[in-house]
Amino acid sequence: MLTIISTFFVAFYSFDNFQDQMSSQWDVEDKFDFIIVGAGSAGAVVANRLSENYKVLLLEAGGEPNPLHRIPLLAMFLLQKPYADWGYYTEPQENACLAMNKGKCSWPRGKSLGGSSNLNFMAYIRGHKNDYESWANITGDARWRYENVLKYFKKSEDYHGEWDNDRYHSHGGNLRVGQPPYKGMADVFCKAAEEVGIPTTDLNAEFIEGCSPVYLTQKRGKRLGTYHAFLKPIKQRRNFRIRKYSHVTKVLFEGPENLAVGVEYVRHGVTKRAFASKEVILSAGALNSPQILMLSGVGPNEHLRSFGIPIIADLPVGKNLQDHVFSLLGPFVVDQPITLNLEADLDPQEIKKFIKFGEGILTTSFLQASAYLVSEVAKSMGQSDWPDIQYFLISANIFESLRDYISISQNLPLEVLKTFFKGIMGQNSFQIANLLSHPFSKGELKLNSSDPFKPPLFYPNYFENDLDVKVVVEGAKRALNLVENSPTFKTMNARLHNISFPGCEHVPFRSDAYWECYHKHFTLPLYHPCGTCAMGNRDSPNAVVDSKLRVIGTKNLRVIDASIMPHITSGNLNAPIIMIAELGSDIIKSDWSI
């Protein structure tokens, strides 16, 4: 089956590339009102909103999303495919990714229309109210307060769920949000959480601690990324152009004000230029937008000079890199057959159910429920209303294909997983992702070369700050408490698989030292890089863009994507990125009197 799928991938993308080359004659007109770089979660939204009123060019380094990305269950299996993913890896770190090949964690980033919304696990989580209050305090701009950003979350939302009220949710937006038809153990997990003091609540409203089944961006059981939600419906607009396979190499500037007038890009091996009469907008993501800025001369002075790049503006581009990081706790074995068993459950009937009705196990992304807790570290810092531990329930038996794909997608030696999962294969089991929601550690992105086709260097610095270690150790212990002391899980005889993770055999199993070792070896990024073009006051030494997302020291250049976050939000980033794009689009329209 996997061989057939791979063959389909190659055939589809070869045809897509042929079609794109055949359509390249229409790029004779190179003057637009706005040029948007990147068609991912942010760029697709900005393109949709601005092309309502203006002539817009959208440049994307990849091609069309593959139809198989629409199947939620394939989310894990479709990571690290070169036609849809930049295939990045972190640099070796002292305190993380220790079990990975060469000490490098995998960092998939979307490379197609829809970007990482084609690769993610579709969780729709807006974050916490305090995330946005802090953004407003950092920038001094009330536009970023919770009450204001809430209306932009609602603008794009088409909500279908159990907490349907006008204050927090809306209907009719581009993005359908709801629980998947297959919920697995979600209700069981939240019932057990309630039994240890974590209430069931709407995690997309105002809360402190709570649990909920995961809400996904789906429509009729299929993935609804930003391509299908925001781009596909407007592709025929006469004032809108998409150019796929267009790798932007730099922003073009003119005059003493560093006026952004266009971009240079390479398409099918040919260097081209396009010009914008109003603005250039970088929405290439938290890893590629800073790279483009630095290649264009916007970034740390000494770093750019070391590559012979002329300086346009000396700004801390690439600094403040943040990401959510986690480890999979478990497997937890249960006596009842209530967990997902793909080897037994995935049959022709399930495929028919998905194709015909959008139902069944193919609608799950593996993430079934989520919970938030406030750590003792947060309480000691006066943040008892701002949760910093997050859990995801992943209820699926470990089987050979899944184990092997974890190895491939996470750059983790197969022998390590064979040892760790010994004796557990095929048993009824689940795992809990123990997530660091508010990392204290910050990393950095640097250029590797002045060659725009060489990937940057990524130094996330996971667990560099000891407070992060304290939080994940507490998270691990409280997850064990949830499983071992809740009546619900006790009735299932839920218990932790008792094999130490390879590399941590030297410390007592289940001790604090063990959980520290465990997370530093079995380090799993949640693929939420952000903060590399941080928003702030124009006179702040930490700011790359101001509160209107304009690049400081330049004119008519903005960044609209996850890179502008001053600090990471409390949850998955796709929903906040779409909000940023909605708000940013309105700011642009206001500035140009529309």
TrEMBL record:
Pfam family, one: GMC_oxred_N
GO MF: flavin adenine dinucleotide binding; oxidoreductase activity, acting on CH-OH group of donors
InterPro entries (UniProt xref): GMC_OxRdtase, GMC_OxRdtase_N, GMC_OxRtase_C
Keyword Flavoprotein: yes
Domain Glucose-methanol-choline oxidoreductase N-terminal residue range list: 110-133, 285-299
Origin: domain of life: Eukaryota
Protein keywords: FAD, Flavoprotein
Transmembrane segment boundaries: none
Cofactor field: FAD
Similarity comment: Belongs to the GMC oxidoreductase family.
PANTHER family reported for this sequence: CHOLINE DEHYDROGENASE, MITOCHONDRIAL, GLUCOSE-METHANOL-CHOLINE GMC OXIDOREDUCTASE
Protein's UniProt name: Glucose-methanol-choline oxidoreductase N-terminal domain-containing protein
